[in-house]
Structure formats: C-alpha cells, structure tokens
Amino acid sequence: MSADDTVRSEYRLDPLTNRRVIIARGRSRRPHDNHGAGEKSSSHSDPSLKSHKDNCPFCLGNEDMTPPEVTAHRPEGGGPNNPGWDIRVVPNKFPALIPSESPSLKSSERASESMGWFATSPAVGVHEVVIHDPDHSKSLFELGSKKVSRVLSIYRERLGVFAERDDLKYAVAVVNHGAEAGASLEHSHSQLFSTSRVPFDVATEVEIAENDCAAGRECRLCNIIKEEQIRSERILGLTESHIAFIQFASRSPYQVSVAPISHQSRFEDVSDDEIEDLGLAVWRSLGALQSVLGPVPFNVVLRTSPWGNHASEGYHWRLDIVPKLSIMAGFELGTGVFINIVPPEEAAAELGPEF
Ligand SMILES: [Zn+2]
Ligand SMILES: [Zn+2]
User: How many structural domains are present in the chain?
Assistant: First the structure.
C-alpha cells in the first residue's frame, strides 16, 4: 500500500447546519470512476435523444397531456395550453401535496388527528412543474445561461405568488436530472414545492440564523463567503454578484453552492440584473461539473427563507448543485453523518479552471 492509499478521515462541522460530515481523504476509488465522460448515463445530455418525443407530456404539441398551465413565457404568442411557449409551468399531475382548494380536503373531517403516538394532518401545499424548454433533448446546461436565468426568474415569480398566501409557509425549487437523481421524465424540468409547514432541516438552519441575528452576530454565510475569498481554496469562481464554491463540510462529492455575495434572505427579492448574473454563475457551475465529471445525474436545490411569521432576515439564500455520485448507505442512514470521499479543496481545484 502506497502512502497515497492511506485513508485519512476527519470530521468537519458545517456552520450552517451544525451537522458534522466525514471527509475521507486518499480513498483510491474516486466517485466518478464509474461515471467518467463518454460513458452512457441516464442524464439528458445523451446525444441519442431526439428533440421531440410523441408520448412526452412536456414536449411541444403535447400540452393537453398535462393539467392546464399555471403560467408560461410565450415569446411567439399563442394561447394557454397551446404551442408557442418557451417555458411552461403546470401543476404536477401526481402531486405530493394536496392543494388547499381540493374538495377532498374541504370535505375531510379529519383535518388533524392525534391518536396517542399516531398523529396525522393533511399534507397541504403546491406542487408544480417548470418545463425548461420545448426541446426534449436539451439539458439545462445546453439551454445556455440566458435560458437558465429565465428559468430562475420563473422560480422567483412563482415563489413570490406562494409567499402571498397565508396557508403556505415555505417553498423550495429543485431539479432532478437523470433517473438516478429522481427524475421520472427525461425532458428537462424543475419542480416547485410550497408547504404549509417549515420542514425540519430548514427550521434548524433558520433557527441558527435567527439566534445569530438576535445575538448581534453577522450572518454565517456572509462571513464564510468573505473567508473563502481570502483563502481561495474552495472557490470555483465569482460573477459580478454571486460566488460559486464548495462548502468546507459539504456532504457529497463535488457539491457546488452558488450564493449572492451580499446578504439577501429571500430569493423573491432578487433583482432582474441579479437573476441574469445568477443564471451565468449556475450555468458556469453546471458546465464545470460536466467538463470534469461527464454527463452525471444531479440535483439542484434552491434554499431560501420561509415567510410570514417564520421569515428570517438572518437567513442567506443559496442554490446547491449536487452531482449524484454516491448513495445514502447504511452508515448515513444509521447516523445522519455523510462520508464525502472527495475533499472540497480537491474538487474545487478540478472544477475551478472549468468555471
Ligand atoms: Zn419531451
Ligand atoms: Zn449573509
């Protein structure tokens, strides 16, 4: 065994979540040994994909295969639920959350129940799909930075609408790209979830931010962003108003975070210029990941402050891009501690030149 094969593991504390991860250095088997460029993957960048698929509900001309649209960008005109759209938002056909206007909810006598240890309440919320483009074959990266910005502006528009509603408390936007990352349809799309409860992980991060605020301490992510710029060992790059970097204690290999350099708690407050710049930062990050890892499946998660009486000025929104290179195995399930076998500094050194 050479010195390079020696496993050196360390715990790192994530300051944003107060969770520890294990960074395991020197494991000889790298996560993308199985996912290298050129190998077949289920991601959208598969060159054999055609730009139109007859039975795909997200393809142009198949608008009647989805529930009626919520909104759409229509640069070429055309009425709702007809071709002419560039980005289209529709309710999820099989929603994970019950719309508050649902008759089944209104008729339900069992709004909330608690029978000893067995408490239930209706999972109320909104579950929408954002179809990124009429073209079936194009991945988010292949759509270009201007299109990524437009998709992000749709997130902003919809989150703004959800935030006006008293029955909703939180929203998250996600991309599941590739079957291994949870995509059930290969046509590039995002999902928007807005919930009537603030999820546990979000509440924990918000509580940390609020405690800092109450104690007069500066936002942790603002501090981290300053420190990362000084150290410069985990940064992919900067655009005018955003930073792309790998978090010191990131849970999975090559996980890239994109955040505004100046403090901002609510994604709905991002300006048009900032959206344009964010699209560039996200697109460059996706490009860097594709150059280094090849066409791997990935998730994107936009994390922003809840609203109403759960709002947190101290929260700093961010967007995480998580390549699907490892699975949650027994140790992670049993302990909640993730093992990341690519030190963030090494991942940043590979991705930085490609940003
Ligand atoms: Zn399609
Ligand atoms: Zn901040």
Answer: 1
Rg (CA), the chain: 21
**106 part of a folded domain:** no
pLDDT bin (cut points 50, 70, 90) of residue 48 is: confident
Distance from the CA of 245 to the center of ligand 1, in angstroms? 32
Domain that holds residue 212: 12-101+120-354
Distance 264 CA to ligand 2 centre (A): 6
Q: Report CA-CA distances (Å) from 268 to 76, 157, 272, 329.
A: 27, 7, 11, 36
- 115 within a domain of the structure (yes/no): no
Q: Which ligand is nearest to the CA of 88?
A: 1
> Which of 23-37, 92-106, 263-277 has the lowest average pLDDT?
23-37
Ligand at shortest distance from the CA of 316: 2
pLDDT band with cut points at 50, 70 and 90 for residue 42: very low
Q: What is the pLDDT of residues 129-152, one digit of tens each?
A: 999 999 999 999 999 999 999 999
User: Smallest Cα–Cα separation from 301: which of 274, 326, 322, 323?
Assistant: 322
CATH of the domain at 209: 3.30.428.10
Q: Is residue 70 part of a domain?
A: yes
